[in-house]
Amino acid sequence: xxxxxxxxxxxxxxxxxxxxxxxxxxxxxxxxxxxxxxxxxxxxxxxxxxxxxxxxxxxxxxxxxxxxxxxxxxxxxxxxxxxxxxxxxxxxxxxxxxxxxxxxxxxxxxxxxxxxxxxxxxxxxxxxxxxxxxxxxxxxxxxxxxxxxxxxxxxxxxxxxxxxxxxxxxxxxxxxxxxxxxxxxxxxxxxxxxxxxxxxxxxxxxxxxxxxxxxx
Length: 216
Fold this sequence. Notes:
Sugar-binding protein; 40% strand; Carb-bd_dom_fam9; mainly beta
């Protein structure tokens, strides 16, 4: 199955670049491959450009979402699951294989709130589960015409969860965009790197995943 998956090649961080890692700056990310072929199969409206980049070294998988959208909707009534789920956000899912039993979800907004949970097929989510403590860091910032969510995930945690095999990580990359409709209610546009080919929006399905290839 993994050989058929849509692939993104993750560039390795050379030792002489290590000084850049803490600030994850432009020079760091310009060496990464740019993933920008996102789709929203369930809506005809255009959506703002998204650029995803990732790199890795012996310790971490680094990731960077830049979303070229200045109208960001954040539900700040509290930090509950519902509040994060009703906000503009970016998402990374990881799985061992196409059985999705289990798979792991990271949903992150521009306030660096993180909804991390373990999931099983048929929308069976364990919100009490958390990514291993100290093995995930997320940062964000806004520019006049875009926002960025970036971070790093330890390879130790990915390996302990069984998510790296032969330098391949099976992953989904997504965005939820909330826009006000004519009833003054906010409704989502669901955006995915891989078109899952479902009638209704659904990221929680094997066909929405691709693979990250960790290159030397």
